[in-house]
Amino acid sequence: xxxxxxxxxxxxxxxxxxxxxxxxxxxxxxxxxxxxxxxxxxxxxxxxxxxxxxxxxxxxxxxxxxxxxxxxxxxxxxxxxxxxxxxxxxxxxxxxxxxxxxxxxxxxxxxxx
Amino acid sequence: xxxxxxxxxxxxxxxxxxxxxxxxxxxxxxxxxxxxxxxxxxxxxxxxxxxxxxxxxxxxxxxxxxxxxxxxxxxxxxxxxxxxxxxxxxxxxxxxxxxxxxxxxxxxxxxxxxx
Lengths: 113, 115
Fold this sequence. Notes:
Chain A has about 110 residues and is mostly beta strands. Chain A has strands spanning about 5, 10-15, 20, 25, 35-40, 45-50, 60, 65-70, 75-80, 90-95, 100-105, 105-110. Chain A is globular and about 40 Å long.
């Protein structure tokens, strides 16, 4: 069974600084998709960024980028120029074709003014 | 295009009562997923449905829990004879016909409190 691990229960970053959230996963599949979701206090789950495993190029969305290391089964999220609104729970998720989404336990990110 | 709609947002039930949680997926989405989130924890998969079919229910407790996604109408997660341990936030997500790469779009959740 696929599993997703986030080894950092909590992280903090100074406003305007950069922070990296870690995610590793376990799968025997070669073709799959990885996601980072953000859950602010409102509880709404918001997609931050998505990566297809067959793409070597790391995905980027504005201040958010990933470091995807397929051989190491690692998928970290980098947030640049952190803003107060980035404070939230961040969940890493995995999906392969025809299957449900598997989520990690989450990392709570605090942004310090 | 309205997002994924869940209702009610908050539901209070006494022990032994039934809870019915509703989820209307986004227009054009035929796949629905239900997740449970306990306080300060991640999302635990419960069930994955397509219209009129259960694709994967490996995360559903064997007793008291059931889910359906009829041809017409919303998906329903039903919890019979609720107990205090069922108190949690229940999230529904939907996605288009399966391409694998598409993200799941989430509703705002239903917070169930069992008293």
